[in-house]
What does this fold into?
Amino acid sequence: MTNRNSQSDNDTSTHTYSAHEDFHWIEGASQGSQYGTFLETTLDISNGIHTCLQLFYTSAIEREANADTEPANWRKPAISIVEADHLIRLSIAATNLLRQDARQRIDWLAETD
It folds into this structure.
């Protein structure tokens, strides 16, 4: 009978395969290209920023509406003021990363022309 719990079966470093595959917006020949990777990164970052700003904005509007009504009628915002601050800071950092990546690519193109 074979020992199914041998050292090599439990050692994940010996496994070279996985059911997980990275998600990609782009399929085909452009997947993994510099341009394709930049487009996928841009889409992912812009989707995240869009969500952050929606949460920030709707919570700010809810707080403003609460200021104009009685406490018994207040509605709880989706996120706290501290969480809203974190999302804005995340959005700033994400746009900075995207800007830096674009700038590096523009500089690289300028050098190759």
About this structure: Residues 34-67 form the longest helix (34 residues).
